[in-house]
């Protein structure tokens, strides 16, 4: 069979079924995987890697950045404990894939991104997919988007050297912050709950993200 005869969509369907079946086994929250099933990941990828859309791997999206592995997206989303009424902040729009899933599961999503070309592409993608409850902003040097704080959930899809105080300030009491913390090359995925009496931090496991750039995180290389 010649390359252009490969039935891409048929192959994707098989991989898709397998991926979501596997994810449903490891993700207990019953809303997360069905929400992911409603978002076509292939539309968030460059043409050359669309055939890999439903493999459980991170993939390059240009500008040296990556779309996260679906399992990690599911794990981070689950940790936010969304019921549908929340206002959620995402740092690191990237392709917009995580933002679309958050839009499926919460009331309002605010997503910030440093790289203007990625931000614009994600904005157009989500608009054409019909998401009306996501707003996009170009990140400044200071982390997050304090203008619309407090947030019930904050998800950081890039790695920080420590838990940034600026993000804790933007989190509502009772809110959840999900963030990879560690070195530039390997991190632990932390779930931080801001209780009335202080922080509760749980480690969800090892992960590897691109660096979060800005005040209170990493300097640009
Ligand atoms: N959530 C994305 C994956 C993001 S990759 C998706 O679903 O596709 C991490 C992104 O974080 C990169 O695009 C990078 O440019 C961005 N980033 C890095 N530092 C940032 C900051 N301080 N604020 C916002 N975005 C940042």
Compute the CA-based radius of gyration: 17 Å
Number of H- or I-type helical stretches: 6
Cofactors and ligands: S-adenosyl-L-homocysteine
**CATH superfamily (homologous) name:** Vaccinia Virus protein VP39
Distance between the termini: 45 Å
Strand portion, in percent? 25-35%
Roughly what is the average pLDDT, rounded to an integer? 96
Helix content: 25-40%
- What gross morphology would you assign? globular
**In CATH's first tier, which class applies?**
Alpha Beta
Total domain count: 1
The name CATH uses for the topology is Rossmann fold
Strand order of the largest sheet: 5-4-3-6-7-8-9
Ranges where pLDDT stays below 50 over 5 or more residues in a row are: none
**Total number of strands:** 9
Task: State the order of secondary-structure elements, H for helix, E for strand.
Answer: HHEEHEHEHEEHEEE
Class based on secondary structure composition and strand pairing:
alpha/beta
| Biggest beta-sheet profile | 7 strands, mixed
Task: Explain what the structure shows.
By secondary structure, the chain is α/β, with parallel strands linked by helices. It has a single domain (8-207), classed as Rossmann fold, CATH 3.40.50.150. 28% of the residues lie in helices and 27% in strands. It has 6 helices and 9 strands. It has helices spanning 8-26, 32-37, 70-79, 97-105, 116-128, 165-169, and strands at residues 59-62, 65-67, 87-91, 108-113, 134-138, 151-156, 171-182, 187-195, 198-207. A 7-stranded mixed β-sheet has the order 5-4-3-6-7-8-9. A two-stranded antiparallel ribbon has the order 1-2. α4 (97-105) links the parallel β3 and β4 (108-113). The radius of gyration is 17 Å and the shape is globular. S-adenosyl-L-homocysteine binds at residues 65-68, 91-92, 94-95, 97-98, 112-115, 118, 139, 143, 157-158, 210, 212-214. Residues 65-68, 91-92, 94-95, 97-98, 112-115, 118, 139, 143, 157-158, 210, 212-214 line the site of S-adenosyl-L-homocysteine (SAH).
């Amino acid at each position: 069979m010649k390359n252009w005869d490969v039935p891409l969509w048929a192959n994707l369907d098989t991989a898709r079924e397998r991926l979501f079946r596997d994810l449903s086994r490891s993700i207990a929250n019953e809303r997360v995987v069905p929400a992911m099933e409603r978002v076509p990941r292939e539309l968030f990828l460059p043409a050359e890697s669309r055939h890999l859309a439903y493999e459980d791997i991170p993939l390059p999206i240009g500008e040296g950045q990556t779309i996260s592995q679906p399992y990690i997206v599911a794990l981070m989303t689950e940790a936010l404990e969304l019921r549908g009424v929340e206002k959620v902040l995402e740092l690191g729009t990237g392709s917009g894939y995580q933002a679309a899933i958050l839009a499926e599961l919460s009331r309002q999503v605010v997503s910030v991104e440093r790289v203007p070309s990625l931000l614009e592409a994600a904005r157009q993608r989500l608009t054409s997919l019909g998401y009306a409850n996501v707003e996009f902003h170009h990140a400044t040097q200071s982390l997050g988007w304090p203008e619309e704080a407090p947030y019930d959930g904050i998800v950081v899809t890039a790695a920080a050297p420590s838990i940034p105080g600026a993000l804790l300030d933007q989190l509502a009491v009772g809110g959840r912050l999900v963030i990879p913390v560690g070195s530039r090359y390997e991190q632990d995925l932390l779930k931080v709950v801001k209780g009335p009496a202080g922080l509760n931090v749980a480690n969800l496991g090892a992960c590897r993200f691109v660096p979060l750039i800005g005040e209170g995180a990493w300097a640009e290389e």
